[in-house]
Amino acid sequence: MRTFIITILFCLISGQVLCFKVTGCIGGSVIFKCMYKKKYQFDSQRKGKYFYRNDTSTEVGSTDVQDEWVHKGRLSLYDDKNGGFFKVFLRNLSKEDHGKYTCGQHQSWSHNVELKLSNYSCCATSVFLTGYLGQTVTFNCEYPHIFKKHAKVFYSLERDPVHVLNTSHSSNKLEKFSLYDSHVDYFNVTIRNLTPNDGGIYLCGVERDKSDNQLSQTSKTHISFIKEIHLNLSDQITSVMVQACSSESVLIKCKFPPQNKGNRKFIQKVAVDSQKTFTNSQNSWDQYGNVFLYDDTSEGFLMVFMKELTAANDETYRCGVEIPYNGDLFTEVKLRVNQVNNSSASRLTTAYIGESVHLTCNYSEKLNKTVKHICKEKECKDICSSENKRCWFSERSAGVFTVSISNVTLRDAGVYWCGTETSEEYFTFISLTSKLELTVSMPPVIGHEGNSADIRCPYNPDHKKEVKSLCKGKCSIQDIHTIIRSDEDHVNKPNILPNNDAINNLFTVTITNLTAEDAGIYWCAVKNSLNYISTELMIVMRDVVTHSQTSGGSASINCENMRNSSRHERFFCKGRQPSNCVRDGVQVSSERSSNGRLSLNDKRSVGVFTVSITNLRVEDSGTYWCGEESSGSFILTQVQLSVKREMNLSDTKTETVLEREQSGFFVIIAVSVGLILLAVGLVLLFKLRCNRNGIHSSINRGDKRNNDMAPNAVDEYEEIKDGRHDSTSTPFFSTVQFPSNSSDVLLYAAVSFHKHEDSLTDDTVTFSKDINSDYATVSRRTTQN
Questions:
Q1: What is the 8-class DSSP label of residue 215?
Q2: What rounded mean pLDDT belongs to the chain?
Q3: pLDDT by residue (tens digit) across 239-265?
Q4: Do the Cβ atoms of 394 and 401 come closer than 8 Å?
Q5: Rounded distance between C-alpha atoms, residue 142 and residue 181, angstroms
Q6: Tens of pLDDT along 696-735?
Q7: Residue ending a domain, choose from 202, 234, 266
């Protein structure tokens, strides 16, 4: 919807022409003065003043009285005979008001008026407020930025202007009416100690002249009213109704005017001789039994958290702020506690630090479209709601939603409440219907028998100088077993090595030479702090059980008991890691001895328990764990199960063919190696003969240095006769190729055997020698016609 401004030009025809630009909003108001000369002030014969529209020659309004307002619809006229002006006040301006007007006195003087339209965004707004007798009310009046340096006006329609604020001075804050200009496009108006006469309609505006510059002392001005304030008075405090059930909790937020942010807040039962309960501090929680108060000075509201409601909480309360010399400002809250308990019992959830956790909350299906909240007890300032996206919310089903918190930290441990919000302008309450308890711990530590394991204890930065402890069992109980303290000399405990990393806020304890007795739950503690964190140390025994079987058969796996006690639970699970196996993969146990194809038989008399698996499948292969658990103490033994596919007749034939082919290949290789060795002997013999006859080859390094043009290699051929054939039989040929660049650290020879005729088998053997190794490579290529 567009907002328009009416501009009115007044021109004084007689003598000097004076023009005034008056700005008023569509829906707003304007007030201006038609000045006349002093000789007309007391002319009783010509005292009638008028205001009419030129294009229709229709009189809009007129008056014959002086020093008194005359009202006619939207128009009000006031003839101030002492001031020498005729005041025109026009309200609820509209586009139809555009046109030319005249104001004046019959047969004496007149002014022509022209109305034009302009546009500002903050004009023509109306606000309806409710004030309470004896209290204080404050509101804002917006104005266009171009009027930053202009005087601001607060005006009552029932009387003359209540107060005009000039930019050269500010109001006394103890006056009944005070204005404060923030110079950021609005000014504040405060009315104190409200009385029945203070009700009515007020106007906020700016004082202007013919330009948008700052006013001078000689400027002829008019007032543009931008905002209307409808103030209704009541002698009754506004009451709100809050419904809750016993054992549930509520969080109430009472908002107060900005100027009261720093005042003391309180909660009070509306009963005879009931005392106010004040907040003792700001921006922190104060506890009074099951009631917690939080004075939020940044947002300007009081939060009241009442947990685990009972019939005693069914009262009417005042949620208020103390205002010196002017009484209190408060909201009346009627809390009705229904004795029907619709909430479920507290649910316990455990999460590992650094991982994610999912919390499930119940709420009324009738409130499906309201804002969802999860609130941590004593820290409800940091509400995680579906509106501000602090956490990830998802709807599971009607009346159930899930809150997911990622990267869990030590600070996330505690009691949570979740529910839905009901909100009004200055009051909000959250009905908290589900109680959740979240504990956090470090991920399990896997230690192997005989090795060492690190137990890490993170702590808050503000506990850097406090004494840290590691206990086996909770450190707060009397019969604790303290492993080590950060201020303790560990010389007497050679297998315990502590390390306090103050930079990363981490206390680490290394336990060496692990045994089964080291398994258990360990607790980290900081002196004078109630924040404890635990971790599990699982011990994996040194021995590994292996078992092989074919598919379709059965396996019987014996697991040795480390602790032969009826209090210990035996279990069998599958998983690569023991921690995941214990948490997600337990298949059979002492309590659940049968599960499909698996069964567990605990033979305590012989110190073992046996796990049987029937109708084995290939996919059953993998890593399993035999485990014992007692009060969080886990001892595990690794089991490797291998299940092979059962061979049928066709598989057997195929395997036989493969074995024959492999056998033939090995025979060929053996023959080839023998021939190679024979060839090498012949080559060496030939080389010796050449040396005796003074024949030199390129493998002689001295010759190579003297003759760069020598060939890179010498090929020697030796015919090898097969004793089974005559002289006409196809020969084998061996080729010896010497390297082109010999050295002391590298000597190799490639020997190839070739057989021609129907079946060709090329075998190449490479001999290589360097500083570190001697090896031979045999490659065989078979070609068939």
A1: P
A2: 75
A3: 788 988 888 899 999 988 777 888 889
A4: yes
A5: 10
A6: 333 333 343 344 433 443 343 333 344 444 444 444 444 4
A7: 234
Residue pLDDT, tens place only, 627-646: 998 888 899 999 999 999 87
Reported as a single tens digit per residue, the pLDDT across 652-692 is: 555 555 555 565 656 566 667 777 877 777 767 666 565 55
Q: Report if residue 662 sits inside a domain.
A: no
CB 408 within 8 A of CB 356: yes
Same domain, 474 and 385: no
Containing structural domain, residue 559: 541-644
Location of structure tokens 């707004």: 125
Report if residue 260 sits inside a domain.
yes
180 and 251 share a domain?
Answer: no
> 537, 565, 600: which is the final residue of a domain?
537
Residue 659 in domain: no
Distance CA 223, CA 194 (A): 26
Tokens of 470: 């590691």
* Ramachandran angles phi, psi of 182, nearest 5°: -80, -15
Question: Exposed, middle or buried by CB within 10 Å (0-12, 13-18, 19+), for 636?
Answer: buried
pLDDT of residue 659: 56
Q: Are 278 and 382 in the same domain?
A: no
Beta bridge partners of 555: 613
Alpha helices for 552-644 (secondary structure H): 578-584
Look at the chain and count its residues. Answer: 785
Q: What is the pLDDT of residue 603?
A: 83
Phi first, then psi: give them for residue 527, nearest 5 degrees: -60, 140
